[in-house]
Each structure stands twice: as C-alpha cells, then as structure tokens.
Amino acid sequence: MKLDHVAIACDTLEAGRAAVEEALGVRLQPGGKHAHFGTHNLLLGLQDGLYLEVIAIDPAAPLLPYARWFDLDRFAGAPRLTNWICQVEAMPDTLDALPEAGAPVALERGALRWQMAVPEDGALPYSAMFPALIEWGAGGTHPSALLEPSGCRLTRLVVRHPDAEALQARLRPHLRDARVVFEAGPIGLRAEFDTPGGARVLV
Question: ∠ at Cα 171 (169, 175), nearest 5°?
C-alpha cells in the first residue's frame, strides 16, 4: 500500500481552483467527470508519481440512489484537504485485511480504469482520516503520467486524529511511506509541498 494522491473537496470546482492555486502558486489542469458518483475534478501533477485532485459534486449530474465517495453528500464550507488515497496491488486481499475501507466499485474516466473501495454511507473511518484505497487497472496508465509537471513535490502529509496512535497501528502492517506522519490532535490533514515559489501548505 503506497500513497497515490490527495484530495481537496469543495462546493464548486471554481472555488477549489481558486483556493489551491492561491495556496500553491501553480495552475491546476483539467480533469473530467465521474459518472458513477456524479462528480468532476481538476488535477495537479506532483513529483514522485503523485498527484493532487480537486473534487466536487457535478451540478449537471442526476440524483443518485446511493452515497457519493469522499462523503461529498455531506460536504459544506470552504475548500479543504479531506482525503488521502493509497494505491494497492490486490484490492480483494487488502480488503480482507482492512474491511472497514468499504466495498470495491469499478470506475472509469476516459481511458482510465480503476477500482475504489467506498463505504456504503460514503464516510471513511476515523472521520475520513482512514485512507481511501484504489487499485488501477493492470497495464493501464496512471493519471500522474498524463499530467504536465507542476514543479511541486509533496514532502509531508500529516494525518491528525485524537486516536492517531490506534489509526497508525491499524495501518502500520500495510503502509510504508515516510512522508505520512500521524499526530494526535484535532481531526484534519495537512499537506506540505516544495513548489517553484518555495515551501507551501494545504489544509
């Protein structure tokens, strides 16, 4: 299990764009629509094969009979870093070990094919400080390979939760990434970046 990308949720993509571009000093790139969950996104290519996603409910999407991923049905407020997503090599095996991550959903956007583990109510454990799990299609292209380099590199991702020790212990057998740091405290994520304009932070 390794870090794949981080997600900024927002009420509208334009609000998300403005917040991220101001914070990082670089321009986001077009993404696309996710028909199954009625969302759309903007993207930013990062170094080391990572990327950043700005995601919102697509106002043109129909009502859905099930919950959206990332608990977006209940999102409100200013754009903020809400989720971190980890790539796995074998989703069934990982979900056997971490069933609280949800059930696998097959998804596609353009030429991209992947599975995402999504809880039935859309809400990940530990108030969404538990990572979302993703498995990209075998032999397919990873989104980071399709994005123009931004000159930004994620240097540290701080995962804060009052029970951070238990969350870290739950993930320790599966996650190996020195950039991910667990801290006890108020619930939230903090992503630290090196950018062309210097050190920047997203929360």
Answer: 125
